[in-house]
Amino acid sequence: MARKATKKNKTQKAAKAAKRNSAGNARAEGLRLFSLAGRPKKGQFIAVFGQRGDRMTWEQRAAHAGLASAEEAAAKFQSMLAKQGR
Known about the structure:
This protein is an all-alpha fold. 70% of the residues lie in helices and 0% in strands.
């Protein structure tokens, strides 16, 4: 016997999908910024942002560098790396 779709089941499924989508959207944004920065290696993050640079989010990296946004941090990453001499 097939289960009847109830309103409660539909809202639970929609809530789960929204959670997955928000996590997926955040991951996609992080990958976009990573690509914008030139796909840096772990050592390059550490050289520019310090010991925990590879574990920071782009927002945290922007705050560490004194920049206004995560996108600005990603866009300026290569110039910051060049200043470090690596």
